[in-house]
Structure formats: structure tokens, C-alpha cells
Amino acid sequence: VRLVESGGGWVQPGGSLRLSCAASGFAFSVFDMSWYRQAPGKERELVAAITSAGDPANYADSVKGRFTISRDNAKNTVDLQMNDLKPEDTAVYYCVDYGLNIPWGQGTQVTVSS
């Protein structure tokens, strides 16, 4: 059972990044999935969620209109397209199943600064 996040990096405010999460070892297609983030000194927070069928189910108010979650059940991946990034989006981003039953991966660092 494994979740591996990738695609993070440094970007200037207003820029874009696309995060990807590769899942293995479990029946990915039946799980609702989500992206969380944790900024330094803050608790981990839910960013976006998507149903097993691929319908976006939830976005944090702070990212609505800027972030888009999607998934490919044939490839066992869930992505997070992040546009118009702001310094407050700086965090380690994690994907996990919505029910928090799958062990967390190591995450991918996103840094937004000028």
C-alpha cells in the first residue's frame, strides 16, 4: 500500500503547478481521494476531495476557483492542478484516501515566493 506524491517545487506568486499522486497496493478506483497540505507551524488541512467516480466533492474556501482535483482510475493517479498560487499556499502537499485509511505518503513541497 503506497501513495507517492510528485510535482512540487518553487514558483512565483501567480504561477501554476500540477501535483500528481501515484497509488499502488489497494483498490484505488473504489476510494474517494483527497489532497491535504501542511504549512510550517500549522495543522494539516483538507485542500480538495474527489469521489471514486471522479466528481470533485470538496474544496477548501481558500483554494476555490484556483485549484482543480482530478483522477485517472486506469492509471491509479490523482492530480491537483494549482493556478494563481499565493505565498500562503506554501506547504507540504499530501494525497490520501478521504477516509484516512491509507498510510500517508511523504508529500511534496510547494513553495510560493518571489
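[next item in queue]
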Amino acid sequence: VQLVESGGGLVQPGGSLRLSCATSGFTFNSYAMDWYRQAPGKEREWVAVIQSASDYTNYADSVKGRFTISRDNAKNTVDLQMNSLKPEDTAVYYCSARVQGRRVWGQGTQVTVSS
């Protein structure tokens, strides 16, 4: 199982970024996919989830209305569109899935929101 995030970077407050996670090694369209993030000195926190058929999504209150999670089951990818970014969104962002009872993680991609 492999998860590889991309798309992070430095952005000014109010800006946008789109993160992508490429996956392999499991039946992608059978599993819900999550995004998490971890800010310096803080616990890793859940950000968003999308079910396998894209028929259900949910978001942490801190990002609701600003972030959108989506997936492409043909390409085995899951994206996170982040708009109206705030300095408090600065963190390493991870995609994740619980595959056969085990939570698996990518290596993360850094998002820094700063002027």
C-alpha cells in the first residue's frame, strides 16, 4: 500500500492550494479516504473524509466551507481543494485510509500560510 501526497507549498492568507494523493497497492474504490494535518507542536487532527462512492463527505468544523475533498476512482487519487487559507491552516497534510483494519499514511506535504 502506498500513498503519496503532492501540491503543498507557501501561500498567502486568503489564497488557495490543491493537494493531491496518489495511491496504489489496494482496491482504492472500496475504501473511504481521509485527510489529516499536523501543525508544529500539536497533535495530528482529522480534516475531511470521503466515502468510496463519493456519496458522502464530512469536514472538521475548522475547515468547513473552505475545503473540499474529492476523489477519482478511475485514477486512484484523492484531492483536497483548500480556499480562503488562514495562517492556522499551516501544517503537514497527510492522506490516509484504513485498509484491512490498519490505518495507512502517506509521507505528508507541507502547507505554509504566511504573508
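[queue empty]
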